[in-house]
């Protein structure tokens, strides 16, 4: 495979969040919160109030309300773990995996009404690993196979945005997105009683056109606001190397090329915030993601030898409900806390230990922020904990043409620290 198509394949490698991670713990391809410490502390409830360079991600219309130009650095180191019946019958604890996430964003006012935003930042990603998983059975014509069931995902998005302030209350904005993804995926399954190990390795590519569009309203006294953020759907296609073993027998040519296809679905968020008094502001937001569009993930190879041509997902649409608060009664410090309730994406019938756990997810966040150097340097920190479990998953659905979803106990968890430094000028 030439380097040009490989570089142009895209975030489809994030399909490994369904195949081999399950560590976008809430489900689908994304976490409930991302890299900005301020808005992570608010559970991601930013669509109505974001007024700095992070608006390029949360709602580009918010750029029009910036008070100063800024450049910002963000870091969000995360530990994740997925557990489940990875060997087909027993509950197995997966390895704890470290997932780095970070970002750089900036905003610059071009005119009184027009603001430019730019940035590069993590848009998703996960890591999961079950060591020495055994599938299949040893028999006269069958053989078991023991191997690692794992994934490594890195998704990076670059954005360029413009926002226009229509009047004192209303603004609109849009972000052009360029997204790069890398994934290394190793799948364990079963075909005709024999164990199968399939690797989709060095999957990478770039999607060069997708957008975020937004609008925002702020009241004259800034007591309350409303925001709407829309993300367009992207058809995903990635290319990389393919390898396969059936009962220990190599079933592919070394370096065989493979293609994977799925989509990153449309998403829309709507939020509101309200200042109760001088000390408290409340936030609420709902995010809808059209994951029902993804009913399978397809694989192809140049010679047509793919052992698992498709994974049946039959995902459900996702809703994130976010509530949060800010407290201003501690002098120079602002305290923040949030909660996110996320509906299940993976149906119980199609559960797998490396899919997202088929249950609702709960995310708890807390953080603080302070300004330094005559309010030109802002520092925010946050902590996040995410938990999801289902102790009685029914399973039974056809994950592939030859293997069914395993019943049993499934759970996932993630913990993250977020830190952001913003310089105003």
Automatic annotation (TrEMBL):
InterPro entries for this protein: OMPP1/FadL/TodX
Topology relative to the membrane: Multi-pass membrane protein
Alphabetized SUPFAM superfamilies for the sequence: Porins
Localization annotation: Cell outer membrane
Molecular function terms, GO-annotated: long-chain fatty acid transporting porin activity
GO cellular component: cell outer membrane
Annotated signal sequence range: 1-26
UniProt keyword terms in alphabetical order: Cell outer membrane, Membrane, Signal, Transmembrane, Transmembrane beta strand
Family of the protein in this entry: Belongs to the OmpP1/FadL family.
PANTHER family: OUTER MEMBRANE PROTEIN NMB0088-RELATED
Name listed for the protein in its UniProt record: Aromatic hydrocarbon degradation protein
Organism of origin: Endozoicomonas montiporae
């Amino acid at each position: 495979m030439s380097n040009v198509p490989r570089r142009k394949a895209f975030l489809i490698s994030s399909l490994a969040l369904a195949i081999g991670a399950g560590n976008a713990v809430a489900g689908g391809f994304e976490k409930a919160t991302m890299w900005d410490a301020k808005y992570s502390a608010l559970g991601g409830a930013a669509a109505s109030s974001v007024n700095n360079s992070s608006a390029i991600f949360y709602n580009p219309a918010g750029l029009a309300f910036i008070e100063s130009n800024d450049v910002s650095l963000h870091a969000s180191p995360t530990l994740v773990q997925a557990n489940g019946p990875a060997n087909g019958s027993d509950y197995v604890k997966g390895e704890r995996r470290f997932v780095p996430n970070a970002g750089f964003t900036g905003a610059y006012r071009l005119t009184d009404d027009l603001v430019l935003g730019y940035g590069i930042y993590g848009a998703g990603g996960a890591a999961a690993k079950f060591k020495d998983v055994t599938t299949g059975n040893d028999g006269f014509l069958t053989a078991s196979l023991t191997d690692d069931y794992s994934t490594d995902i890195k998704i990076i998005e670059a954005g360029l945005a413009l926002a226009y302030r229509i009047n004192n209350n209303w603004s609109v904005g849009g972000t052009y997105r360029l997204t790069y993804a890398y994934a290394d995926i190793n799948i364990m399954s079963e075909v005709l009683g024999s164990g199968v190990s399939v690797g989709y390795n060095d999957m990478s590519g770039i999607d060069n056109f997708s957008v975020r569009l937004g609008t925002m309203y702020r009241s004259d006294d800034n007591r309350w606001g409303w925001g709407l953020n829309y993300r367009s759907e992207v058809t995903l296609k990635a290319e990389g190397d393919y390898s396969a073993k059936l009962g220990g027998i190599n079933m592919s040519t070394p370096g065989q090329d493979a293609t994977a296809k799925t989509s990153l679905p449309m998403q829309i968020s709507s939020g509101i915030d309200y200042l109760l008094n001088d000390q408290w502001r409340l936030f609420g937001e709902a995010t809808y993601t059209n994951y029902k569009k993804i009913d399978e993930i397809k694989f192809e190879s140049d010679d047509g030898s793919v052992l698992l041509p498709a994974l049946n997902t039959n995902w459900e649409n996702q809703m994130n409900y976010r509530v949060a608060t800010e407290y201003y009664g501690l002098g120079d410090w602002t305290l923040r806390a949030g909660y996110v309730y996320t509906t299940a994406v993976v149906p119980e019938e199609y559960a797998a230990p490396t899919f997202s756990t088929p249950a609702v997810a709960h995310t708890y966040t807390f953080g603080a922020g302070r300004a330094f150097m005559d309010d030109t340097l802002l520092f925010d920190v946050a902590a996040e904990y995410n938990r999801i479990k289902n102790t009685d998953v029914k399973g039974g659905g056809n994950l592939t043409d030859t293997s069914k979803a395993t019943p049993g106990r499934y759970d996932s968890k993630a913990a993250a620290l977020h830190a952001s430094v913003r310089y105003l000028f």
